[in-house]
TrEMBL record, chains A, B:
PANTHER family: BLL4848 PROTEIN, LPXI FAMILY PROTEIN. It comes from the Bacteria. Residues 4-126 form the LpxI N-terminal domain. This is LpxI family protein. Transmembrane segments: none annotated. It comes from Rhodobacter lacus. Coiled coil: none annotated. Residues 133-266 form the LpxI C-terminal domain. InterPro entries: LpxI, LpxI_C, LpxI_C_sf, LpxI_N.
Length: 270, 270
């Protein structure tokens, strides 16, 4: 991984990747809180092309973007001429939304001959494949998972959400802007509504997947111990995620939490 | 309306229709709370065909189904032979869900030569058409309404919800089993999340429409003063409903409540 640069944003993911491959070159946007890496190369969007040159000079051939990055304000006086020539493309992408911005940034790295890799190429454990990690999902859980997957796919087509909760075929909630935790809290609050329909003490699944057509190398949705706690509090039987499509942060801790709460974790192949 | 029978379930709608056309024959499933109509003809699902005969004998040619009906338990010993012959169809439809049950019941009425009409045929004011009932929606509200309509249409295709909340293009919530009130409470709770993105004190619309392909003669979604209060508490600019697709119960009171809260009510043609 000596030839790999980590473009590190905020959150737990960059730290986990640095632990897995400490020999990577860590790069951060100027202005962000410094990571505890041996050396951090700071860069600015206004001088992106010189940054690409600096990476190439150090023998970097692959880059991995990880963690949330805020859109920086651009200072016109800092641009070099080659980066300035890229501005129309960058600004257009930024105005078209987060996904477009990320696709544009990936495209730029690739134009400058860097290979863009996902977090799973550095630490495969972070992105579990197909299989049950704990617990025992039954046929009703699988039916709920398939129904939820269908709902999430329909929503993805209109660029909404990456998750839904289905219990015995009933859609209890759909993820929107407020996010996963808010949705699971909502289910916990309204579960009594459907209690009469559900014989089992725990029923229903939370299903999580990337948006259809999303580039799997960046910005995958994440699950962790907190998600497990919220899903358990919502009375669900388990969490189903798309195999290879979701980051499982703190895997051991997440699996232990799920085992303790008696809920299953299942990587599902569509 | 002397030749019209009202098949009355629970809720405010049957009462409003009886007030609008008191000469209708009011029919109720045995077991439900009696309505204050001059005469109520009670019927049982197990004796549906004799009930059809009784309607025809009284000169009934049109029926309107209004209000929520619980699925009754069937008592095998009460069936007559002709109704018993219909059981396989009825049971199949009941197991396929609410929409299928209603379609099957409409189909039976039609087979027995009754015309099935919607509540709007009795009281047109109940189902407003296109037009702004109060307030002044702006171009941003229309964009939000179109985005929400697109989301609701995508969800309808997977048989979920009839409503969504969109503010400045952001999907704040999607209606699922817990219903409209629960969704609007959720928006009220999480609105602070997007407050920074929204300059206006009120922004966003709640959009409500029937499911795509739904028979408009039965089971239309409803709006009322309570919906207005919840939408106002959620900080929304207004409520948009599909023209001709939503019941507006207590129209005067609903419009007054919206005017008092400073939010618009808009019947929108897709």
């Amino acid at each position: 991984m000596r030839s790999t640069a980590l473009i590190a944003g905020a959150g737990a993911l960059p730290r986990l990747l640095i632990e897995a491959a400490p020999e990577m070159l860590v790069c951060q946007l100027e202005g962000g809180a410094a990571l505890s890496a041996s050396e951090v190369l700071r860069f600015r969007i206004e001088r992106l092309v010189p940054f690409f040159d600096a990476l190439a000079e150090r023998g970097i051939t692959r880059v991995c973007m990880a963690g949330a990055m805020q859109r920086p304000r651009l200072e016109p006086e800092l641009f070099d001429a080659r980066t300035a020539a890229l501005v129309p493309r960058l600004v257009g992408a930024m105005q078209a939304g987060d996904d477009a911005t990320l696709r544009a940034v990936i495209g730029l790295f690739e134009e400058f001959d860097f290979e863009v890799i996902g977090a799973d190429a550095i630490c495969p454990d972070l992105v579990p494949g197909a299989g049950v990690l704990c617990g025992m999902p039954g046929p009703e859980d699988e039916r709920d998972a398939l129904r939820a997957a269908e709902i999430v796919a329909a929503l993805g087509a209109v660029d909404v959400g990456q998750g839904a909760v289905v219990a015995r075929g009933l859609c209890l909630a759909v993820e929107a802007l407020p996010g996963t935790d808010a949705m699971l809290d909502f289910v916990a609050e309204h579960r009594a509504l459907v209690g009469a329909l559900l014989a089992a003490p725990k029923a229903g699944v939370f299903f999580k997947a990337p948006k259809p057509g999303q580039d799997r190398r960046i910005d995958l949705p994440a699950l962790g111990p907190r998600t497990v706690a919220k899903a358990a509090a919502a009375g669900l039987a388990g969490i189903v995620f798309e195999a290879g499509g979701v980051l499982l942060l703190d895997r051991d801790q997440t699996v232990q939490a799920a085992e303790a709460a008696g809920i299953f974790l299942w990587g599902h192949n569509r």
